[in-house]
Write a structure and sequence with these properties.
The protein is of the alpha/beta class. It is built from 10 helices and 14 strands. It has 2 domains: about 140 residues, D-Maltodextrin-Binding Protein, domain 2; about 90 residues, Periplasmic binding protein-like II (D-Maltodextrin-Binding Protein, domain 2, 3-Layer(aba) Sandwich). It has a 5-stranded mixed sheet, sandwiched between helices. The longest helix has 16 residues.
């Protein structure tokens, strides 16, 4: 009886997949590659002045489609807080949306080889005088909803023996956090370094400071797959390697981030 209860409990904790196992075959036969993301994460994916979805992930998805044999990429905007369950519901074939590979997410998905660095940073107003995470005591801090930066802020408070003002605030969209900071309701916003640097290039009143610690490991941006999609993941990994080797990935990073991070990316999927 106890054994049956344990088996049932484990089954309930794992995501249920409503998709078929041969995702690679289905993608090729349908001629369409659907990938999940949440628009509003510049420069990974965002709407331009013509309301067109553009960004690094869109270009990477387009390139993957070509290399799969002329498959048409179809980015699908979704709710990031439920993106993994949507993957298992069969709403899309993979997650290609600037996702940071984390231990918690790895319990539910498998990751590709990294296709971008995901080191963290802190966005602050230049006028704040904040130059280090150790100076955030008594400050209002925030991060993106469902992102690893929430946990990092908690660890940083322990590391520097500080307390923030109130709870860590979360935002669904980066631009909402930026507006809150400019209005004086927020002192620091934690996100990926590359996304913050992209924003800082368009704003003279903010600056980005490093947010690193020995309390967490090196971070990478990777695509996420259902646990059973190993052949599909293997095919995408080979495409990532090819894009690194022929300079395509470096070119796209230069286009969207102003520099290449390819030399920082291992040909090994993040695991725990």
């Amino acid at each position: 009886m106890l054994k049956k209860f344990i088996i049932t409990l484990v089954a309930c904790l794992l995501p249920v997949s409503f998709a078929t196992a041969d995702t690679l075959g289905n993608v090729k036969s349908s001629g369409k590659l659907v990938f999940g993301l949440e628009a509003g994460y510049k420069p990974f994916e965002f709407l331009d002045e013509n309301n067109k979805l553009v960004g690094y992930d869109i270009d990477v998805g387009n390139e993957i489609g070509k290399r799969l044999g002329g498959v048409t990429p179809s980015p699908q905007d979704t709710n990031w807080s439920t993106v993994i369950q949507s993957l298992y519901n069969g709403d899309f074939d993979l997650i290609l949306g600037g996702m940071t590979a984390t231990e918690e997410r790895y319990k539910r998905v498998n990751f590709s080889y990294p296709y971008m660095d995901a080191s963290s940073g802190l966005l602050v107003m230049k006028s704040s005088g904040i130059t280090s995470p150790s100076m955030l005591g008594g400050k209002v801090v925030s991060a993106g909803a469902g992102t690893p930066q929430i946990n990092q802020l908690e660890l940083a408070a322990k590391e520097h023996s500080i307390s923030y003002k109130g709870e860590i605030k979360t935002f669904d969209k980066d631009e909402v956090a930026y507006a809150a900071m400019r209005s004086g309701r927020l002192d620091a916003y934690a996100s990926t370094l590359v996304s913050l640097l992209a924003f800082a290039q368009t704003s003279d009143d903010v600056t980005v400071i490093p947010f690193t610690s020995n309390m967490w490991k090196a971070e990478y941006t990777a695509m996420a797959f259902r646990k059973e999609d190993e052949s599909f993941r293997s095919a995408i990994n080979q495409i990532i390697v090819d894009m690194k080797n022929d300079g395509t990935l470096a070119s796209l990073q230069q286009k969207w981030f102003g520099q290449s991070f390819v030399d920082l990316l291992p040909n090994e999927a993040p695991t725990w």
